[in-house]
Amino acid sequence: MGRRKDIDGSAGVPTFYGKELRWQRERAELTLQQLVEGSFYGVSHLSEIERGERRMPAELAEHVDRMLKTDGFFKRRCEDVQRA
């Protein structure tokens, strides 16, 4: 496994969103694999979102909110990130 890189959340909206996603996932003690289970997305897709390299689709945001119990945070911010 490669060395984990810190995410600079000040680099823009997608990286800020990705950094929050990683923080929430790690707080819940879930791996990328565990978080995507039950969705139609893969680990690499979620990893790219965490690094701010890809935008999160609304249906994945809903799945993430359910898994992380974030009360709709990622779904609500999904449109903002898409526009950024």
TrEMBL record:
SUPFAM superfamilies referenced in this protein's UniProt entry, alphabetically: lambda repressor-like DNA-binding domains
GO molecular function: DNA binding
Regions that span the bilayer: none
InterPro entries, A to Z: Cro/C1-type_HTH, Lambda_DNA-bd_dom_sf
Residue stretches making up the HTH cro/C1-type domain: 20-74
UniProt-listed CDD domains: HTH_XRE
Pfam families linked to this entry: HTH_31
Name of the protein in its database record: Helix-turn-helix domain-containing protein
Organism encoding this protein: Streptomyces wuyuanensis
